[in-house]
Amino acid sequence: MSIVVRDVREHELDSILELNNAAGPSILPLDGARLRRLYDTAEYFRIAEREGAMAGFLIGFGSGTEHDSSNYAWFSAQHADFFYIDRIVVASRRRGGGVGRAFYADVQSYAEVRYPLLTCEVFLEHDNDPVRLFHGSFGFREVGQHVMPGSGIRASMLVKDMCSYAWVRETYGGRLPDAPWLGRPRVARRTAGARA
């Protein structure tokens, strides 16, 4: 029962919307228009499959984009260069089966050659001790808290240093080798001059 992590396909957006809105109070709900904007602008938008069925998704943005999340804006005010995990959702029947770990291994592999920090937040209002423990086990640490305007939800703002980033930047500058395993950002395929 292997887990496959791959880029999202446009025809999967309805399933992603349903999965997101069934996730419970630890994930903000989406409507179709908002999900479409995320699809059109996210640097990283991947799904996980297990046994041929969608098991979850993860959406992320690099620094310097026009992402309109208040949590992203908080990180932008604190750090010049980072990769932000906007949301990760794992289907309830797949939780505890390694899907979240597969996503975090994949997104870290993507981010560590491009950004010095991997960032995300965890809501504090809900019973999220397992989520905080999960992030702590991946080396994330809290660097502050942020109350989200409109919702009043308090979030623990987490960062993880990408220890390979300095070496990659020193060795390759801003141009990564053309290797299939490195992948290329989705935005770069759509927008000329996007970050490589």
CATH architecture: 3-Layer(aba) Sandwich
Mean pLDDT across every amino acid position: 87
Low-pLDDT sequence parts? 187-196
Q: Any idea what the shape is?
A: globular
What distance separates the N and C termini? 33 Å
Strand order of the largest sheet: 1-2-3-4-5-7-6
Q: How many domains, as an integer?
A: 1
Q: Determine Rg (CA atoms, Å).
A: 16 Å
Structural class: alpha+beta
SSE pattern:
EHHEEHEHEHEEHH
| CATH class descriptor | Alpha Beta
The share of residues in helices is 25-40%
- Oligomer class: single chain
β-strand number: 7
Number of helices: 7
Report the major sheet: 7 strands, mixed
CATH superfamily descriptor: Gcn5-related N-acetyltransferase (GNAT)
CATH fold-type name = Aminopeptidase
| Amount of beta strand | 25-35%
InterPro entries: Acyl_CoA_acyltransferase, GNAT_dom, UCP028520
Protein name: GNAT family N-acetyltransferase
Keywords: Transferase
GO molecular function: acyltransferase activity, transferring groups other than amino-acyl groups
Q: What is the structure about, briefly put?
A:
The chain is of the alpha+beta class and 196 residues long. The chain has a single domain (3-176), classed as Aminopeptidase (3-Layer(aba) Sandwich).
Describe, in plain words, how this protein is organized in 3D:
The chain has helices at residues 13-21, 32-41, 70-78, 99-111, 129-137, 165-172, 186-190; strands spanning 3-7, 44-50, 53-62, 83-90, 117-123, 141-147, 154-161. It has one domain (3-176): Gcn5-related N-acetyltransferase (GNAT) (Aminopeptidase, 3-Layer(aba) Sandwich). It is globular. A hairpin with a 6-residue loop joins β6 and β7 (154-161). By secondary structure, the protein is an alpha+beta fold. It contains 7 helices and 7 strands.
